[in-house]
Each structure stands twice: as C-alpha cells, then as structure tokens.
Amino acid sequence: MRKNTSMSSVLFFKLLPVQIMIVAMGSINSIVDGVVAGQFIDAVSVGVIGIFFVVVSILNATGSVLLGGSSVLSGRYIGSGDVDKTSGVFSLNLTLTTIISVLSAAILLIFPGAVATFCGADEHLKGILIPYIYGYAIGIFPQMMAQQLGTFLQLERQSKRNYAGVATMIICNILLNITFVAVFKLGLFGLALSTAICNWIYFFILVSYYLGGKSQLKYSFRKARWSDTLNMVKIGFPGALLVFCLAMRDVVLNRLLLSVAGQDGLSAKSSLSMVGGLFIALCLGGGSVVRMLGSVHVGEEDRDSIKELIKIGMTKALLFTLVIAVIVIASSGFVVRLFFADPTSNVYKLAYQYFVIYGISIPLIQVVQVETNYLQAMGKNICVNVFSFIDGFGSVVFPALILAPFLGVFGVWLATPIGIIISALVYPVYAIIHFRHIPRNIDEWLLFEKDFGVSDDDRLVVNIRSMEDVARTSEQVNEFCKAHGYDKKASLYSALSLEEMARNVIEHGFTSDNKKHYLDARIVNKNEKILLRIKDDCPAFDPVSMKEQIKPDDPTRNIGIRMVMRLADEVDYQNLLGLNVLTVTIDRVRAKG
C-alpha cells in the first residue's frame, strides 16, 4: 500500500483557518469590549461583563448541541455519499436554531433582573448589568444562526464568505463600540448594542449565499430530518455539557476569587476570559476540524484517513500551539495593560500572573481538543459526557477549592494546568477500560472495533500525481481484484474505471489553474463488491450529471465517462468540503453476468 498523506494535511489546514477565525472573532470582540469598558467606563464594568459570560456560555452550549450533532451527522452522511440527508440535517439545524434563539432573546428581554441574579450579581452590579442584557438580547438570533451557518458554508466551499463576514464584524464592532461608548456615552448598553448590530451584519453576509439559490444544501422546513432530532441532541450534548460545565465552573471560581482576592481577582479572571479564546483559537478550531473530518471518515469507515487525521492533530497542529504558547507568555504584559493601564496595580499583577500560567497550558489544550472531538466523531457519547464534566468542571474546580485556602489566588490560577493534565488522561484511561487491557497497537488506541471498515488486506490506498501514476495504479487495481478472487472481467472493469476517471482528473482538473492539486484513490473489497473511491481537490466536476448531458448522437464525446457508467454497477458523486468525491461500485455477480 503506497502512502502519501499530503491531501489529508492540505484539507486539514484548508479547513482550519475558518474555524480559527470563527473562534477568534468572538474573542476579538470580547477584547474590544473589555478594552473599551476598561478605558472609557471603569474597571468594575470589565468584571460585570465577565459575570454575564455565564449566560453567553449557556447560549453557546445550546448552539454546541446543534452544531456538534449536525457536524457529526452531516459528516457521516457525506461519508456515505447521501447529500439529501445532509440537506435534511441542515434544514433541521436552522429550524431548531431559530426556535431556541427567539425564545432565549425573549427570556432576557422579559426577565433581565432574574438573569442578572442568576449570573451572581448583587444589587449594585445588577443595576449595571441589566442595560447590558437588554442590548445583548437583540443580537441573539443572528449570533446563534451565524454560528451554525459558518460551518455549513465550509461544506459548500465558501470559506471566503466566512472570512469577509468575520473581518466586517470585527471592524464594525470596533467602530460602533467607540461611537456608542466614547462618543454617545451609552455605557455597557452601548457595548452590547454594538455587538448585537454586528451579529446582524455577520448573519446577513453568511445567509445571503443561501438566499441566492446557488447552494448545494437547500433549506426546506418540510424536508427537515425531524427523525434525527434525538440523535442530533445525543451526539451534540457532550459539547453542550462541556460549555455548561464551564459556565458553572465560572460561577464557582468567581465566588471563590471574590472571597480570596476581592474585585481585583474577579476582574483579572474576566480579562483572561475575554482574550483567552483568541489564545486557544487554533486548539478549538483544530478540534472542530477533527470532529468534522473524523465524522466523514467514520462514515466512510476509512481507517487510514482517521490515523492520518489524528497524526496531524497531534504533531503539526501541536507544534503550532507550542509557538502560540511562547508568544502568549512573552506578550502577557502588553495584553494585560490593554485592560489595566497601571502596571503597579494589584489587578494588573494578578492578571499577568494568570496569563503566564494559562499560556503554559495551551499545548495540552490542543491534546484534549483532539481527544474529545475524535471521541465525539466516533460516537463514544458516554465517554464524551464524562470527559465534558471532568474537563469543564471537576478537573479545575476541585483543585482550586483545595489549593485556594493555602495559596490564595495563585492556587486558583494553578488549578488550570492541573485540570488540563487530568483531562488529557481521560482518553487513555477510557481506552484501557474499553479493551480491558493496555491497547496493543494504534488501531486499539483509536478504538477501532474488529468490524470497523475492512482489514489491511482488503483495501488499497494510492496517491496519483501524474499519468504514469494512473497507468501504474490501474495495474495495481487489476492485481488487487484478482488476488481477492475476482475474475478477469470484474478485475478489468475495476481497473478501467479507475484509469478513466483518474485520467480525466489529471488531464482536466490538474490543468484548470496554476494551483497544485491532489488525487487520492481508495480501493476496497467488501460484500462481494469492489468500491473505488476517488477524491480530488480540483474545481467541481460531476461526471454523473455530465453523462446525462452527453448527446446520444455523438458517441465519441466523453467516451471514458460513457464507458465507466456502462461498466459500473453504481456511480455516485458529491462535492463537499472542497473535494470531488466519486464512488464507483463494481459488483462481482453483475460483472460475471
């Protein structure tokens, strides 16, 4: 089996920037809000915004249920080649998001005092927080919808639209914050209103693609896969549980900090909460890509691609996080001064201390993100639920409660790296419990069951870069089929089908532009059939539709496509995640006939 894993790496890092931008956008906006609050209002307002993060986290948790479940289900349907079901999941997601976001906004607008009390605000802070709640509620619907649409747009190869939306939102938020707070003196209400308006702008930029009628995924209330609702919630719940646990962790740590360090401790923690998402944007984005691609590969039952995906997450992506950790530690003083201008103040010293400790923890966060998102893609829901509770609450809160009485605020800060180490151990412990022994090989460490996919002997993975590779691969396919007991006719059909479709990609796709392109083929022997799955990252081309457009009175036109359609038992095509994926099935019985 020839191995060249460049396409997996290219696809991973092609999807990663958008996921980083989506995560970073929220953090950048939080940084802007925090800086404007600290510079133009007062330091207390920074802590007040931090208190409201509990509600923001709960809304994110709800969105995570829909996003996580939809990502996994969509990936599996893409992997199995069913675009209609993917559209059904898309429709279900947007319908549920609309209902939940409208209800959430109504609760905040009708019961702002109760919400402020839930966040832990006393009577004084409640009066400051309520105007912020009003302004924030206006933007909940577009915020939650954009969170979902950003991921679906990646399936549609619309990353540039995501970039444009993120950039526009950040610029508008800076301008509106300064206008509403520094010029019109609207205080925290102005900060929240600015964010709400920007959420609407971002939403309209994203949704306009689907309103234009060019999208492959079509919204239809009638075609929403309501039967997948429970499954979506079950799959997505662990991610939501994690966010909810993080919110509850904030409640406990906020009260603990107030008891050991007062308002300075709370403001120091809030400043990191605002910027911390930016520090770990690569970790969170990488985790999302692992979940997305992992779900596709699980749907394909592709052991090789899963191994390569995890390898990338634990090597190349991990190296990037080491660089980020160094940058965070080195720039901590500068970043803290954005929130607290006086470097001699107690709140500055506490924040600086926390930033440095957090920076040291970043590479381990990458490890935890790869582990938990892979478990979610594999459908190990019970383990992911346990993982979410430990990572989101127990692993940090309990060390903080133990250390704070002895070390004060430093004990609370130290609980973060301790908690991440504990979380990183959950996966290997689960693998040992699952197999009742220490895993003996990479397949067991990746939790592959014996009936998952096919054995090494029943699959052939090749990477095609030239016409010479096409001819060589055709010979390999022919020999592979014969070695598995297929007669000359079935073996020849398989080899010719692979050769014609790969040749078409090399001749037309590879020369369509000046970019470097990749073509990978996977040949599988399963259930008395040969499955040829050909993937390339060239411009979209659907040979199935092309066959319907070929005039019958011109027998020489696209003769290769005609031949494959005639020889194959079944041919399916889809173009999602920036790839052309063609699946050709050759039936042993049909070929004999």
Gist of the model:
The chain has 593 residues and is of the alpha+beta class. The protein is built from 22 helices and five strands.
Give the SSE layout:
Blueprint: H1 6-40, H2 43-79, H3 83-110, H4 112-118, H5 123-137, H6 140-155, H7 159-183, H8 187-211, H9 229-279, H10 281-300, H11 303-314, H12 316-339, H13 346-377, H14 381-407, H15 409-424, H16 426-435, H17 442-445, E1 459-464, H18 467-483, H19 488-509, E2 519-526, E3 529-536, H20 543-549, H21 559-567, E4 570-576, E5 579-587, H22 588-592
Antiparallel strand pairs: 1-2, 2-3, 3-5, 4-5
Helix pairs in contact: 1-2, 1-6, 1-7, 1-8, 1-9, 1-10, 2-3, 2-5, 2-6, 2-9, 2-10, 3-6, 4-5, 5-8, 6-8, 7-8, 9-13, 9-14, 10-11, 10-13, 11-12, 12-13, 13-14, 13-15, 14-15, 18-19, 19-21
Order of helices and strands: HHHHHHHHHHHHHHHHHEHHEEHHEEH
How large is the radius of gyration?
26 Å
Overall strand count = 5
Structural class: alpha+beta
What's the N-to-C terminus distance?
30 Å
Low-confidence stretches: 1-5
| Share of helical residues | over 70%
Strand content: 5-15%
Top keywords for this entry?
single chain; 593 residues; alpha+beta; 5-stranded antiparallel beta sheet; 22 helices; elongated
Overview of the structural elements:
The protein has 593 residues and is of the alpha+beta class. It has 22 helices and 5 strands. It has helices spanning 6-40, 43-79, 83-110, 112-118, 123-137, 140-155, 159-183, 187-211, 229-279, 281-300, 303-314, 316-339, 346-377, 381-407, 409-424, 426-435, 442-445, 467-483, 488-509, 543-549, 559-567, 588-592; strands at residues 459-464, 519-526, 529-536, 570-576, 579-587. Strands 1-2-3-5-4 form a 5-stranded antiparallel β-sheet. A hairpin with a 2-residue loop joins strand 4 and strand 5 (579-587). Helix 2 packs parallel to helix 6. The longest helix has 51 residues, at 229-279. The chain is elongated, with a radius of gyration of 26 Å. The two termini are 30 Å apart. Mean pLDDT is 85; it is low at 1-5.
